């Protein structure tokens, strides 16, 4: 099964969300902290000020800034709402406010962006990011997702910096049912990537997912290593890597945005896997990333379990956080 149908499935599930309350409810539960922060506070603001007026916008601004939405994005959201207020020529009521916010947020986040797939041969996905952001976990979850769709996956243990990293990937490979290509600790990561591509071609695998190191002696070394892996896989498989996913910890706020800028400049990140969204009361980073960095959020991690990965769907996200406002 190809990757398009994988993500189409998720998009469809959001389109038919009325028939899919269970899925959305569990999604909302996972996002309870995000909601507790932005939406909980917006809802309590609306109870106090049930109309969208100037004072409402001032208070909303403070809430968004505190939730890591960032100044640029907050300004854009507020000007969108002010515009609506002007056009209406009157104060807006609670349901109109919610609807407007949902629409503005969906607009800001754009359309869902599926993972890019190879025209033919295996699709190569590199997962990059600083240490501890959730790279290996994301690789494991993504592998499981593909496996449950009947795809053949090869994992590459290109984080050779620590032996434990290789073993950790091996465990995920066993859980998800995928072969792990590994070398010794300290081996050349590009050689592991090369072998993973060879193995994928030999077995006719659908995907190669590479787990990369988050920490090296210096950032320059790390970026050089990632560039070398990219070059090597590009020689082995046309168009590879098809995705360079940056694992970004949703709890890292402004720091996360800075990481995204650095990685974007060095290794041409094609998408963000935003991890630990379940563990933050500041989900505003979702809005800030898209708006200020311009890289689409493609996946979100909402827990430590193998199933806790979703394709990111802006409309679904807006609906989930604005619970009860369909
Ligand atoms: N709650 C929660 N925890 C997560 C999520 N994703 C990863 N984690 C946890 O974050 C920790 C670090 O995850 P790893 O996958 O090892 O991170 P990494 O980027 O590979 O780390 P290094 O290889 O050391 O750079 C682990 O305890 C994971 O269980 C998520 O979406 N939600
Ligand atoms: Mg790791």
Which keywords apply here?
Four Helix Bundle (Hemerythrin (Met), subunit A), Rossmann fold, 55% helix, 12% strand, disordered N terminus
Verbal overview:
The protein has 326 residues and is an alpha/beta fold. The protein has two domains: 21-109, Four Helix Bundle (Hemerythrin (Met), subunit A) (Up-down Bundle), CATH 1.20.120.140; 123-321, Rossmann fold, CATH 3.40.50.300. The protein is 55% helix and 12% strand. The protein has helices spanning 3-15, 21-30, 32-48, 54-66, 71-88, 94-109, 135-148, 163-176, 189-203, 219-236, 253-267, 285-293, 314-321; strands at residues 123-128, 153-157, 179-181, 207-211, 243-249, 271-275, 297-301, 309-311. It has an eight-stranded mixed beta sheet with strand order 3-2-4-1-5-6-7-8, sandwiched between helices. α8 links the parallel β2 and β3 (179-181). α4 packs antiparallel against α5 (71-88) and α5 (71-88) crosses α6 (94-109). The two termini are 32 Å apart. The model is unreliable at 1-21 (pLDDT under 50). Magnesium ion (MG) is lined by residues 135-136, 159, 165, 211.
Bound molecule kinds, no repeats: guanosine-5'-triphosphate, magnesium ion
**Domain tally:** 2
Name the average pLDDT: 85
Global outline: elongated
Please give the oligomerization state of what you see: single chain
Kindly report the CATH topology of the largest domain. Answer: Rossmann fold
CATH superfamily of the largest domain: P-loop containing nucleotide triphosphate hydrolases
Number of helices: 13
CATH architecture designation of the largest domain: 3-Layer(aba) Sandwich
The proportion of residues forming helix, as a percent range, comes to 55-70%
Alpha carbon gap, first and last residue? 32 Å
Coarse structural class: alpha/beta
The total of beta strands comes to 8
Q: What is the CA-atom radius of gyration, in angstroms?
A: 21 Å
């Amino acid at each position: 099964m190809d990757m398009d149908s994988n993500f189409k499935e998720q998009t469809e599930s959001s389109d038919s969300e009325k028939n899919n309350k269970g899925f959305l409810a569990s999604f909302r539960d996972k996002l309870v902290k995000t909601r507790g922060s932005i939406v909980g506070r917006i809802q309590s603001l609306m109870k106090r000020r049930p109309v969208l007026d100037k004072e409402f916008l001032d208070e909303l601004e403070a809430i968004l800034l505190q939730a890591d939405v960032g100044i640029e994005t907050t300004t854009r959201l507020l000007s969108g709402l002010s515009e609506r207020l002007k056009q209406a020529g009157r104060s807006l009521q609670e349901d109109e406010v919610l609807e407007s916010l949902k629409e503005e947020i969906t607009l800001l986040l754009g359309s869902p962006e599926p993972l890019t797939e190879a025209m033919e041969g295996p699709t190569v996905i590199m997962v990059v990011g600083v240490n501890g952001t959730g790279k290996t976990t994301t690789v494991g979850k993504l592998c499981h997702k593909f496996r449950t769709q009947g795809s053949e996956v090869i994992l590459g243990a290109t984080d050779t910096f620590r032996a434990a990293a290789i073993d950790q990937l091996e465990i995920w490979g066993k859980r998800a049912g995928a072969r792990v290509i590994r070398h010794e600790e300290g081996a050349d990561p590009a050689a592991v990537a090369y072998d993973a591509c060879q193995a994928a071609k030999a077995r006719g695998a659908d995907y190669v997912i590479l787990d990369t190191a988050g920490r090296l002696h210096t950032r320059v070394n790390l970026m050089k290593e990632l560039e070398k892996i990219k070059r090597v896989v590009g020689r082995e498989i046309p168009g590879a890597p098809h995705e360079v996913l940056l694992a970004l910890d949703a709890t890292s706020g402004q720091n996360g945005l800075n990481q995204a800028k650095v990685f974007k400049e060095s290794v041409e990140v094609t998408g963000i896997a935003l991890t630990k969204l379940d563990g933050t009361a500041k989900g505003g980073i979702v809005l800030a990333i898209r708006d200020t960095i311009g890289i689409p959020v493609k996946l979100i991690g909402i827990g430590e379990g193998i199933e806790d990965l979703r394709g990111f769907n802006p409309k679904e996200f807006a609906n989930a956080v604005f619970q009860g406002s369909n």
